[in-house]
Design goal:
By secondary structure, the protein is of the alpha/beta class. It has a single domain, classed as 3-Layer(aba) Sandwich (Rossmann fold), CATH 3.40.50. The chain has 5 helices and 7 strands; from the N terminus they run βαββααβαβαββ. Helix 1 links the parallel strand 1 and strand 2. The longest helix has 15 residues. The radius of gyration is 15 Å and the shape is globular.
Length: 172
Amino acid sequence: MPGEKKRIVFICDASGTMINRLSLLHEELLQHVAALPEDHSYNILFFGDRGDFRALDRWKMVAPGAESRIATKQFLERITPWGTTNPIPAIEHAIKFRPDVIHFFSDGEFNSQAEYASVIEAFAAAHRDHATIVNTYLFESLDLDAETTMKKIAKDNKGTLKSISPAGFRSP
């Protein structure tokens, strides 16, 4: 189907503030991956601090299927929260895959290592270069700047924002 968004990248927060939220995130990722049609491709990147990120595959997109679902599950089982929050290196790496859609999962509390404006600009570069849609998924946060930033990222990149509570996903 022309115009269909087939290249999907999930960028996920694995910083220390996500310790009680990671299992919910893993479940949601597995559901997303299981629902992908065979003609799509995906990748998953988790970020922490010091510019460190972990990728399902650092070099290429992954085709959906039984084997990749197993590899994804094993990858997710190895992810544990680490450090503070700096999503910019993961965003910059994700852009190299030229995704049609990025799903960005975070509590949005990345101002300790990256300014909110810098994160917004990193996503803007993806949208400028390839018109990438960015959907944001905000885990409950008391930081109003985090919520404002996640909303702006979604709006500026033709995406949507969904809020995530301990009970699961809900629209704002």
